[in-house]
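We were asked to recover a plausible sequence for a given structure. The inputs and outputs are reproduced exactly as logged, with field labels preserved.

PROBLEM: sequence recovery
POSITIONS: 225
GIVEN STRUCTURE:
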């Protein structure tokens, strides 16, 4: 492995086989077609999944770029039924308040075609919950250290996470009950960590239905210069 010192720090040569132009096109098309089949699913089969699958998915998420390579994320994997139950109860309490008063009417109208409400049975049905926390700052032996672009970094990692879940053959739903502070309490996270995203993961129920949504065409999302 070729190495080089840059400003006193060791760097290694980046190596990757370069595909042909045709392979580039095919690779990009294949991945698009794979991800275009991804859907948010709220109906989960309760059958178990090997823990190694979930760990590999999290490892994939951890390959995301981050500000100054601080990797300001923690992924809590929850399979314990009692903890999942506590999370569901707390989440539904917040969601019930949101649907009954916090959300403006136009927000609720936009959600109506998706068939959502304050009830979240998937928080118990899914064999795993992945709770993503963002680390506002580093904390080691009581000493604080600076983190940079935390929300951006963790958001990118969550994108990798969702793609990895789909690639593995599983389904997920991104859940963000607001506020989410109850997750810090239930999972006993340190003060530098704030809940960012709650992702139930598992197999879809044999007979599951998802909204008949249509994604925007390329010409509506791209501007060429």
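RECOVERED SEQUENCE:
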């Amino acid at each position: 492995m070729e190495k080089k010192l840059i400003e006193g720090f060791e760097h290694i040569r980046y190596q990757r086989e370069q595909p042909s132009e045709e392979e580039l096109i095919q690779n990009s098309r294949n991945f698009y077609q794979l991800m275009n089949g991804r859907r948010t699913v709220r109906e989960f089969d309760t059958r178990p999944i090997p823990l190694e699958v979930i760990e590999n998915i999290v490892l994939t998420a951890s390959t995301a770029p981050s500000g100054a390579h601080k990797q300001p994320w923690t992924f809590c994997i929850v399979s314990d039924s009692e903890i999942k139950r506590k999370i569901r109860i707390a989440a539904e309490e917040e969601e019930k308040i949101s649907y009954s008063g916090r959300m403006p009417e136009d927000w609720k109208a936009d959600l109506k075609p998706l068939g959502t409400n304050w009830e979240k049975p998937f928080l118990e049905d899914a064999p795993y919950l992945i709770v993503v926390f963002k680390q506002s700052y580093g904390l080691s032996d009581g000493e604080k250290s600076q983190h940079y672009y935390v929300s951006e970094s963790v958001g990118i990692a969550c994108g990798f996470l969702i793609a990895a879940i789909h690639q593995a053959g599983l389904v997920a739903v991104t859940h963000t009950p607001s506020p989410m502070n109850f997750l810090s309490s239930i999972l006993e996270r340190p003060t530098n960590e704030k809940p960012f995203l709650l992702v139930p993961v598992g197999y879809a129920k044999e007979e599951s239905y998802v909204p008949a949504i249509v994604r925007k065409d390329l010409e509506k999302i791209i501007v060429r210069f």
